[in-house]
Write a structure and sequence with these properties.
single chain; mainly alpha; three-stranded antiparallel beta sheet; 4 helices; 5 strands
Amino acid sequence: MNKNIICYTGIGALKKSGNHTRKQYLEVMNKTFKKDCSLYIKSLKCKSCKKNKELFNKEVKKLLKNKTYKIPKKIEEKILKEENKCDKCKNKKTKKCNFKNYILFSGAELGKCNELGKCNELGKCNELVE
């Protein structure tokens, strides 16, 4: 796998093929997602953000199982309270994202992208070619 090539086809991608050099990829990320990435990475470490995500996902699962389910007011308030705590936590002492942080944040992958429309032997399209 070529670690100097990054497969990224998201917002701000410079190349239609999705294949970017490390430098090109970092330019796009720094220009487009500098603050968003920092907040995202910080939110992964905040207890209140983890708890909020857990509560929210639990309620969404209930909603998906039962279309008539209504989130109780107490739980809704609890989710909002945790969300406010999360916002405060993730905005404190954020750090600039590095290459690995951007990969995690954007979903990009190391290596070349397959050509559009071609699939690998597992039936997955646009996966990395080694």
